[in-house]
Amino acid sequence: MIQLDYHLPTKSFYYRGKKQLTWGYHQVPLPFPPSHSNCIRFSMIEQAGKIGPLVGILTNTHSKRPFGGNLDYFQSIQIKMLAKGGLSFVFTSERMKKNSIIGWMYVDKKWVEAIFPYPNMVYNRISSPAIENKPSTKEAFKKLQTEKIPYFNPSFFNKWEITQLLQKETTLHPFLPETILFQTKQQAAAFVEKHRHIYIKPVYGNKGNGIFTLKKKNNHYTLQSHQFKSDALPFQSCWNILNPYLQKEPYILQKSVRLQTYNNCIFDFRVLAQKINLNWIITGIGIRMAKEKGITTHVPKGGTVFPLNAVKPPINFHIVHMLIKNSAAILEKNYDNVKEFSMDIGRDKEGNYSIFEINAKPMSFDEKNIQAKRMNNLINIFFHESGFQ
Description:
Layout: E1 2-7, E2 12-15, E3 22-23, E4 28-29, E5 39-47, E6 50-52, E7 54-59, H1 71-84, E8 87-92, E9 101-107, E10 110-116, E11 121-124, H2 129-132, H3 135-146, E12 151-152, H4 159-167, E13 179-181, H5 185-195, E14 197-202, E15 212-217, E16 220-224, E17 229-233, H6 235-248, E18 251-255, E19 261-262, E20 265-276, E21 279-289, E22 304-306, H7 317-334, E23 340-347, E24 353-359, H8 368-386
Parallel strand pairs: 3-6, 7-8, 7-11, 11-12
Antiparallel strand pairs: 1-2, 1-5, 3-4, 5-6, 9-10, 13-18, 14-15, 14-18, 15-16, 16-17, 19-20, 20-21, 20-23, 21-22, 23-24
Helix pairs in contact: 1-8
């Protein structure tokens, strides 16, 4: 380990040793300090004259603080990186300069602004598809590509695009509920007529936002979202409610699965997968249970965490491992630098498994053991991908 100084007045980093060291992706030389006062000292790994790894966490702006995103998660990454001899910082696309990035690091229990070279790699934690598609964000990704800075995970997944990719893998066919891209009113009417109960999901939705269910019983329909439930409606009335949403952004229609329940509440499996060196592993499996009569299991929408060992019969790990392994191969074939993802898997009343969604940016897990293992794996990924072992 070597000692690196952060000089508060200049917001810059210095090295007090006798030999020249470099850091960041472009191996920027570290200057010697102008003074010995007002400094915060770090211990970092030196490897062949380079120090690191330096990891940038790309997030979005926030109206009430310097940056948005999950601050607790970012703090945990910073603490773990420092403990192992690395350094991470958070930044937004607006703070990227020609040869440097103005970002924030977490030290002494507070966020401190500093000037960094371009990092060894970037971890994309922009919090919504809409922000990811902003011109400033696209320019940031273009800049990273021009500078040849590796970054993961590259973007939120398009639900319809992922569905089409998974449908090409024959081993996954039995695990995919029928799903189509919404196109017309007549198509939607025919799809609910066929399946009697369907989910209507935004292609770029996340955290359960924008989801509806539509159920047909006799000649009437029940339309439900997280905000309302309307019973005994004619199809036209349902259409009048849905149409503004369906015209605003692309949606998919998905056959509903009769999920197993516990105390009359549906539940599903949230599986976290990460790539360690060359191998995909299952970091953890959590259970999410919907509130009574809820339409999804997302905790922000009223769902709750449920212990895995309470599920009867026990989860079939062989099937889950196969789904993760085969899906990971498809993702890697079609997307650059995928290092982690989560999969929502359901099990119906007959014991059959279904893939509902694959998420490019897993939320933090409420299970402390899973989140701790995830964090350790993530730090190992940063070190390995940055060339620091």
